[in-house]
User: What shape does this take?
Amino acid sequence: MNSMGKIGLAALFASVLATGVTAFVRMSQDGAPPPVPADVMQRSVRLLLAQRFTLDEAYVHWWRKEQPRVAAGWLLVLEVDKDLVYPRQMKEPVLYAGRETAERVNFGHESGRVIALVPGDVDLARAPLFFGQAALPEEVDAAWIEAELAAALRAGATPPSQAEIEAAQIEPLHLADQYNLFLRAADLIEEHSPQEADLVSGLRAPRIDRR
Assistant: This one.
């Protein structure tokens, strides 16, 4: 899941590109994180921006057990409860878009803004955006997601309205690969969560030669 330790962001990003693992996390400088709220599923997640992407080269979605390959999906900017995304070196609330786990590219605990990647053909008009119980996203499978979605619906989770989607959606992207997708994510982090400048620099580090 998320682990940064004392490794420099640029060095970690090079390792990420080499292994395909997408986790960009550093230890908090603010002390221990607050406890995970008991009412996680009742905390709102608001859609601010939605950009459809397609890629020439697929990558592995490590944030669920089945590890599907991703050649298309959504790049989202979400307004979230800061307590749910505080850096934790343990299981933490998992972010979902309907029946799919969302990959959080940044923390967002200072800004309240999370940039997330949602793989596949998720219909945002039918996909509640919500946090589920604390877990390791890479251990979450389809059966787990169904149970979490059912619980979220009982707790009152609803999809974004058509008006919200229309206001949030911008022109789609066609990119070469995951590296270029992260470059776009870095732009959004810089705009919506400027406190995470180190992460932005790491995402923009030159790619390594994989030959």
Remarks:
- The beta strands are 46-60, 69-79, 92-97, 100-101, 103-104, 113-119, 129-135, 169-175.
- The first strand starts at residue 46 and ends at 60.
